[in-house]
Amino acid sequence: MEKFILALDQGTTSSRAVIFNQKVQKVASAQREFPQIYPNAGWVEHNPEDIFASQLSVLKEAVLKANLAPEQIQAVGITNQRETIIIWDKKTGKPIYNAIVWQCRRTAKIVDELILTGKSNLIQEKTGLIPDPYFSGTKIKWILDNVPGARKRAENGELLAGTVDTWLTWKLSGGKAHVTDYTNACRTMLFNIHTLEWDKELLQMLNIPECILPQVKDSSCIYTTTSKEICGFEAPIASLIGDQQAALFGQACFEKGETKCTYGTGCFLLMNTGDVPFKSKHKLLTTIALGLNGKIEYALEGSVFIGGAVIKWLRDELGLISSASECDKLAESVPDSNGVTLVPAFTGLGAPYWNSYARGTITGLTRGANKAHICRAALEAIAFQVKDEIECMKEDTGIPLANLKVDGGASVSNIMMQFQADILNTSVYRPQNTETTVTGAAFLAGLATGFWTSKDEIKQQWQIDRIFTPAMDKETIFTRYAEWKSAVECSYK
User: Fold this and answer.
1) Shared-domain flag, residues 457 and 365
2) Which of 107, 15, 17 lies closest to 64, judged by CA?
3) Are residues 361 and 316 in contact, defined by beta-carbon separation less than 8 angstroms?
4) Cα–Cα distances in angstroms (integers) from residue 43 to residues 39, 131, 151, 256, in the given order
């Protein structure tokens, strides 16, 4: 009887389920959006029951589409939005508050206090993270501080807390397991990435009882089994992994120095740094890339705040284009940007500038500049920002960039990927399968259950769609990058 892997991808706006066969072919899939909740300015929440209901419904839909018997499901893998936090009642399974989403900025004052009292270095040394409301620890503190009776109940061991992977595992198993993996734990700002334990000093700092936190395990192992009454089948839940780390694994970035970039609304870069947790001089994040067979791999992570979102801005706010594909066509219609440089600093700039006061800027405009040049400059801006992050990674680690593996919606742009290769002076590899996040979760679930036997076997499944090789001379690279740097300076003067 043919077996299959069921991979769940629980994202910020939708839940997805994909069924793969042994050749990593997609047999069936289903996707459902769920509501976003914005109670106050800068606050973002989800109803945890909406998260679970949407994920369970697409799980059942995908199994139905594939016409699978229960015993054909070899294993379930889960990848998830990372820093979002949920706290629920241990007995009833009912959340005590909405999920506080990674985007939510309500804990800014708590973070400011940590920084003002000189805790930044301690937090970075232990966790690899820069103190920010983005991470889960201050969100847990906020719930315990603001929901009546929550802290006392937590201290009495009546509550459980976890990121979305933990919540889904608990719900899908009928409450049999309270677990997470290293990649999710390390995004909480409570986990020591060197000792691989919940850090007692950090827990004390935020007044969080350890008893509410999940057990931390490898990203690929059998945590528990699904409940037949809930899911319609019983199968091992065999991978838990944060979405960006899943994409790194799905891209087969198994060797030290291998790097992937996911081009979405923003861009997420991860460089595999092997067994060394490099501390960044540029405020990149040191994160756990993977826990596999009892071994930990680390990564450096950088984020570009505005990636594909700049194309949406051209469409929705400026009305220059009607679609992303039109942006590509216009950009291809001109040989270059005609001296136009666009800096999409709509929400400030990240590494290596870290200037929250920077604002969007267009330089080099002349009478001859037209919308095609602006479209080209917008695509180039995404590639320039990625180069900024990669230069930081190379400087921090001393590891040269062999190539860049790309995925995500905006990676379909041939003109942008070519410019990316040009400006990096490095080959860019785009795989046939650009859904690398959910594929990574499937791979890890398959490894834990013998569906696939090794990383080498998985690497053979990774197929290239196209290689973009650099065609720009070094002098032009230098000149264009200098123009970009100059435009960036203008954005915060």
Assistant:
1) yes
2) 17
3) no
4) 6, 18, 22, 38
Instruction: Report d(CA 241, CA 166) in Å as an integer.
Output: 10
Question: Where in 11-143 does DSSP place strands (E)?
Answer: 14-20, 26-33, 45-46, 73-80, 85-89, 99-100
* 264 and 368 part of one domain: yes
Chain-wide mean pLDDT for the chain?
92
Q: What SS3 class is residue 1?
A: coil
* For residues 301-326, average pLDDT: 89
Q: CA triplet 102, 106, 111: central angle to 5 degrees? A: 90
- The first and second tokens of residue 227, run together, are 């409940």
**CB-count exposure of residue 281 (10 Å: 0-12, 13-18, 19+):** exposed
* pLDDT of the residue at 400: 87
Gap between the Cα atoms of 467 and 430, Å rounded: 6
Is 350 in contact with 488 (CB distance < 8 Å)? no
Q: CATH number, domain at 82?
A: 3.30.420.40
Question: Which pairs count as long-range contacts for 32-39, CB under 8 Å and 24+ apart, including other chains?
Answer: 32/57, 32/58, 37/98
Last residue of a domain, one of 244, 278, 311: 244
Q: Is the peptide bond before 352 cis (omega within 30 degrees of 0)?
A: yes
Assess whether 219 and 292 both reside in one domain: no
Sheet holding 85-89, edge to edge: 45-46, 99-100, 85-89, 159-163
How many CA atoms are closer than 13 Å to the CA of 325, on its beta-carbon side?
0
Cα–Cα distances in angstroms (integers) from residue 138 to residues 20, 284, 414, in the given order: 37, 20, 41
Q: Which residue has the tokens 């291809």?
A: 332
Indicate the number of domains in the chain: 2
| Strand runs labelled E in 81-206 | 85-89, 99-100, 159-163, 179-181, 191-192, 197-198
Using left for φ > 0, alpha for ψ between -120 and 50, and beta otherwise, residue 42 falls in: left
Q: Give the end of a domain, one of 244, 263, 279.
A: 244
Tell me the per-residue pLDDT of 93-111, one tens digit each, with 9 for 90 and over: 999 999 998 888 888 889 8
Same domain, 381 and 356: yes
Question: Which residue is associated with the tokens 């029951």?
Answer: 49
Distances from the Cα of 164 to the Cα of 215, 350, 458, angstroms: 14, 26, 26
Do 236 and 310 belong together in one domain?
A: no
Alpha-carbon distance 329 to 347, whole Å? Answer: 27
453 shares a domain with 385:
yes
Which residue type is seen at 287?
Answer: T
Write out the residue range of the structural domain in which residue 363 sits: 252-493
Q: How far is CA 429 from the centre of its chain?
A: 19
Confidence of residue 355 (pLDDT cuts 50, 70, 90): confident
Q: What is the DSSP letter of 346?
A: B
pLDDT at 162 over 80: yes
